[in-house]
Amino acid sequence: MTDPIADLLTRVRNAMMAGHKVVEAPASNLKKEIARILFEKGYILSYKVVESEGPQGTLKIALKYNPKSKQPAIKRIMRVSRPGLRRYTGTEDMPRVLNGLGIAIISTSKGLMTDKEARKENIGGEVLCYVY
């Protein structure tokens, strides 16, 4: 696999479209941070890492749906920077997703954070994905 982040986002997207409650993916520190941000911003119910015998564990993400309409909390999750074309941004060019209603996950020198947090810290970085 050449792009593990795109694999995680595709697994989440496919599970949402199929109406699954839980999605599993191989764990890594970067994927744990992406799941932490999605949890803090209210896009998923919870996440946990299940340690296994192999070198890496499994990341389990509980997906969130509207109780009445059964619509997923994540309308769209889209990879921006990819191995073939990296997308970097400075503080002044920081993307605003849906005019501030969505989030962009940015990989900075101080770790993964949302676009709003990166603006507040006044640092730029690699734009990993958009979520709304």
Notes on the protein architecture:
The structure is a single chain. The chain has 132 residues and is an alpha+beta fold. It is 26% helix and 30% strand. The protein contains 3 helices and 8 strands. The strands form 2 sheets. Strands 4, 5, 6, 7 and 8 form a 5-stranded antiparallel beta sheet that branches. It has a 3-stranded antiparallel beta sheet with strand order 1-3-2, covered by helices on one side. Strand 6 and strand 7 form a beta hairpin. It is globular. The two termini are 26 Å apart. 26% of the residues are buried.
Walk me through the topology.
Elements: H1 4-18, E1 22-26, H2 29-40, E2 44-50, E3 58-63, E4 77-79, E5 88-89, E6 103-108, E7 111-114, H3 115-121, E8 125-131
Antiparallel strand pairs: 1-3, 2-3, 4-8, 5-8, 6-7, 6-8
- Helicity range: 25-40%
The low-pLDDT segments are none
Count up the helices: 3
Mean pLDDT: 95
* First and last CA, distance: 26 Å
Task: Please write the string of helix (H) and strand (E) elements.
Answer: HEHEEEEEEHE
How large, in whole angstroms, is the Cα Rg? 15 Å
Q: How much beta, percentage-wise?
A: 25-35%
Largest sheet: 5 strands, antiparallel
Based on secondary structure, the structural category is alpha+beta
Total strand segments: 8
Large-scale geometry: globular
Keywords, separated by commas or semicolons:
132 residues; alpha+beta; five-stranded antiparallel beta sheet; 3 helices; 26% helix
